[in-house]
Design brief:
six-stranded parallel β-sheet; 19 helices
Length: about 525
């Protein structure tokens, strides 16, 4: 069976990483004998013509798309184009949004045949086996579908007990070189599950409240592999990496024992860190721990079931600093009970706690308790236009503060950050010497913008190449002229960027029977 998996567009500004859910699913399907292709429309511009071309070449039996809330509409649109190009293919959607909005999606979008809810590997494989055998799918656990115009939801599939049965994610199916060029990190998980029940999050319902762990050896084997791939940073994206202290220390000790030296980050809760744990993390190369603190008001924290205290937050940040780990803290404005005074307190608390912090705005995603019980929490949901659910603008408000005021505060904060970056760029352009940290930030931004131009304009893919027999320098010189004409950057600057990207294994100089050219790795 041939399976085409779709990763829909997602803004570069949100620093996306390689599509972990899709490459994990793909790896399991490949292990079971399927032929899988991934179309990653984060780093490949989407067009209906491209979809038709890919479908014509690959001839998929099943086409699946994933989505979070903010990109579910583009995902549905792309799947509609795919269904038109391959009306005989079975179309499937998965991911957190459709897991909790399956009824509406199946009622409104007739081109979606099935929805896989929750953990996808076993459900998708069983579905694929029945499609291949030409048998009905109505007995498959974890799916939703239409039956004679009526939407049916089969019982949820139990979570995989031993996740060590799953293979390493199939990262070879995507263009890692493009993510490297953009300066984005590569991610991995060491567990699935979250024991907490914050009312603004679907993690507990999506992956279960029992944390299931990959074996320590497997975790470090994968970490060691990622450390060779040329990414500046590895992100461990477990819902709560520090949920099991002894295991965390074992992972860190094994990284140190093998002599692996590579910077990495992880998510933690302020009530799960200690001096000895942080010392182990630091020894193993952890540079940053990300804490979702959410509010500087204890009553709001209690209301949203965060189950932490502000004093524990202060203590966790102090411990991180003492260990030499950067504590990054994040907050959500517009939570139930929010008032102008609680917003002020949260912003003061954030500024006083850590220099590395940021704000999002509450987005009551499908499946969250705050959405399902919005009246009980005194929330008014303003829209169900999913395109607006990017957590950077208000889509809900409390009875005590308007959405306009929340937007104004966050826009003012983000505008201040933008002005700082603009000022640094202006100083650089004037030839002024920047502090090392600022210079690095500016250079990273310049590198990102160049890589973005290459990707968005498909300059590598559309380059006709040099003639046969051209050496490396001639190929790069020809491509530099091509890029310079396309984006208006001096050829010398373009050439310097290209040398950096080739050296970082983002772009390869390659030859073919008809000429010499370049390609993304």
């Amino acid at each position: 069976m041939r399976v085409l998996l779709i990763n829909p567009p997602y803004p570069f500004e949100e620093s996306p990483t390689p599509p972990f859910g899709l490459i994990s699913l793909a790896a399991y399907l490949i292990e079971q004998g399927a032929e899988v292709r991934i179309e990653d429309y984060i780093v490949t511009p989407y067009s209906a013509d491209r979809a038709r071309r890919v479908i014509g070449e690959f001839r998929p039996d099943v086409i699946g798309a994933t989505a979070v809330t903010m990109n579910v509409k583009p995902a549905l649109s792309i799947l509609a184009d795919c269904k038109e190009a391959a009306p005989g293919a079975v179309t499937v959607m998965g991911g957190p949004h459709v897991t909790f909005d399956a009824d509406a999606v199946l009622r409104e979008y007739v081109h979606v045949d099935y929805i896989v809810r929750g953990e996808g590997e076993l459900t998708f494989h069983e579905m694929l086996s029945l499609v291949e055998a030409g048998r009905p799918l109505d007995g498959v656990l974890g799916i939703s579908y239409r039956d004679g115009g009526v939407v049916r939801h089969n019982p949820m599939r139990p979570f995989i007990e031993d996740i060590n049965m799953l293979p390493y994610p199939a990262r070879q199916l995507i263009s890692l070189g493009k993510y490297r060029a953009l300066g984005f990190p590569i991610n991995m998980v060491t567990s699935r599950g979250c024991p907490h029940k914050c009312i603004f999050c679907v993690g507990n319902r999506m992956v279960g409240n029992k944390v299931r762990y990959f074996d320590v050896t497997r975790v470090v084997d994968e970490f060691e592999l990622l450390a060779t791939m040329g990414f500046k940073q590895i992100n461990i994206v477990d819902d709560l990496f520090t949920s099991h202290k002894r295991r965390c220390i074992e992972i860190c000790d094994e990284i140190v024992r093998r002599g692996i030296r590579h910077p990495w980050t992880a998510f933690a809760r302020v009530d799960t860190v200690s001096e000895d744990l942080l010392a182990a993390l630091k020894r193993a190369g952890c540079t940053t721990l990300c804490f979702g603190i959410e509010s500087g008001n204890q009553e709001i924290l209690d209301l949203v079931k965060k189950k932490i205290t502000l004093e524990k937050a202060r203590r966790a940040v102090e411990l991180c600093r003492a260990a030499g780990i950067d504590p990054m803290t994040s907050y959500i404005l517009g939570l139930p009970g929010e008032t102008p005074e609680t917003v002020r307190k949260t912003m003061e608390f954030a500024k006083g706690l850590s220099s590395n912090y940021g704000f999002h705005i509450l987005a009551p995603f499908p499946g969250t308790e705050v959405r399902e019980k919005s009246d009980e929490y005194g929330m008014r949901i303003l829209t169900s236009d999913w395109d607006l659910y990017d957590a950077n603008r208000s889509v809900a408000e409390t009875e005590f503060i308007s959405h306009e005021e929340i937007d104004r505060i966050v826009n003012e904060f983000n505008g201040g950050l933008r002005r700082i970056v603009i000022d640094m760029l202006a100083s650089r352009d004037r030839g002024e010497t920047l502090p090392p940290q600022h210079a690095q930030m500016v250079q990273s931004l310049v590198n990102f913008l160049f890589a973005r131009d290459l990707i968005v304009n498909e300059l590598v893919e559309n380059y006709n190449g040099a003639g046969n027999g051209c050496d490396r320098d001639a190929i790069l010189a020809g491509f530099a002229a091509h890029v310079s004409g396309a984006i208006g950057m001096p050829e010398t600057d373009v050439r310097a960027h290209l040398e950096r990207l080739v050296g970082a294994n983002c772009i390869a100089v390659c030859g073919s029977g008809s000429g010499n050219s370049l390609a993304w790795n």
